[in-house]
Amino acid sequence: MKQYIIPFIFALLCFSSCSKDTGNYEYTDVNLMTVTDTAGESISAKNYDLMYGETLTLEMKATGTLPTFDPKQVQYNWILNEDTIAKGGAAKFNADNLRSGENQIILYAKDPTNGLDYMTAFKINLSASISKGFFILTADAANNTKTYFRSSLNPQSEPNLVEHFGIDQEITLGSHPIELKPIYVNRKYSGLYTYTAQGENVFYQFNLNTLSPVRSLAGAGNGLDGGNLVITSVKPFWNSETGEAFITEKGQVRHLNQGFVKENAVSDPTFKYDFGKEDYVAADYNNSRGTLLMGFDHLSKRIMVLSYNGRIRNQFLKPNLDLATDELPGYSYVTSGGNMVSGSNDYTFYMLVRNGSAVSCYQTSAVLNYEDNRYYPQKVELVAGGTIANIDKAVQPKYHRWTSAFYFAVGRTIYRMTPTSIIAREFITLPDDGTGDIVSWNFDDDAHRTLKNIGIATYNGASSQAKKGSLYHYSLINEGEGTRPSLTSKDLYKIDKAVSLGVAVQ
Known about the structure:
five-stranded mixed sheet; PKD-like family protein; about 50% strand; Immunoglobulin-like; five-stranded antiparallel sheet; PKD-like; mainly beta; 2 domains
């Protein structure tokens, strides 16, 4: 039997291999559909911010590879939790069809040529606040505080006035605003600090999503003399989620943390000093927190450095005047800052002072002694000097720790210079659109150890517009060995006069 089966199979194989291919195949072109927004960008995996009272409109367009494809025949369905919340190529989203918090939405677009569904998913965060963007603290003509939030995740966003905080909108910020700072911890923005000179509470820490208060500090009874606490400046600690900061009251430095403020940060009551409105720099970073204070004393006209006692941080001994500068008559404070010395555990601090247009930069260091694990201050030394025209008009000069440079604004230009070279170079100049001079500006708050975003606020008091303040957003684009500022957005005449600007874009 086996003798016959094997030849038979072989014959079938030969017949199959030798039979003629008649070419009876049918190929059908399949349409490949692409869906984007009207700017030609995919919305897949995008995140959008939406505040209560705002509406986000997304309009889609479809393209196909077949000439018979008709984009008008595409059927769109927008799904949230298995419910269809919108139909059609243009959809509007607000509190009417979204829930509070994060909403993951799936868009289905049916291809009319083959009945196949194109699917993409994105998120919209609906809250009382924004998750990323610009937080602007402003003052009206009577010094009443007004805040504006402007999302960087909603392309249609404009500065949105936020007059009340709290779950039931029961909180109104005090008057004479001082500072606002987004809280950036564990790679996300989680809250907001606000400081005012007057009000029932002069400090608040708010949850960023709900704007409910987490901590606060009453003004009444917390002054150094037992009366009202009137803050003139605040220096928040880096990466703190407990509200830790140094505040200034009547030229004296005090430590604030978890909604409680301590007495004078200088523990020796026999030492008299006056650091003016804000004329000092304090160690606020990583291991150095609360170990050193360098200030320009208005009483002695000297720059002096104070150290902690090795046990209790944020409480400083009276200064060793051998480490201080000589008297600097005619000089006034400009700004200060510092950072960790690369490759070591030591820290360097800089202070700019001026006499007319003559500018000097002084430096001290906090050096770690490994035997007792204590930081010791070094003598304050002059490191650079030069002349800068209009330095008396400098707006919000500051030191950026990650780029190791000073920045300040004059007119409509932000300038940059290093501590070791007092030569101011143009960094960003606003377009000539008549919105007035820069009144507030800031870097992105600590999200990256680089400089990626800058927010700038201007004010034109002579404008006939109802609101006389404007907001600009610049992104810094890496280009060669440096960066190039690129104007990302501008909101003209949308805010009041800015006092403080929190940039939380990254």
